[in-house]
Write a structure and sequence with these properties.
Structural class: alpha+beta
Order of helices and strands: HEHHEEH
Radius of gyration: 15 Å
Protein name: Helix-turn-helix domain-containing protein
Organism: Streptomyces gottesmaniae
Number of helices: 4
Pfam family, one: HTH_17
């Protein structure tokens, strides 16, 4: 096997840690949970280790919606 074939490919739609996503949106964790309770926040997934992650495409779509509004 060559080195190129052993390299891991980056996923087409990577997972972003919730803290990084909140920094990009510019809100606190408390605001995120308030938005989530109201059905406004973007969807996140809980990993088996308990960490929360958001798909890059979901974050980008949410940010685009904020710019339009």
């Amino acid at each position: 096997m060559s080195a190129a074939s052993r390299r891991r490919r980056s996923p087409a739609d990577p997972w972003v840690p919730l803290s990084d996503a909140l920094d990009e949106i510019g809100i606190s964790r408390a605001t995120y949970y308030r938005w989530r309770d109201r059905g406004y926040a973007p969807e996140v997934r809980r990993l088996p280790n308990g960490h929360l992650r958001m798909r890059r495409s979901v974050l980008d779509a949410f940010l685009n919606d904020l710019e339009v509004a």
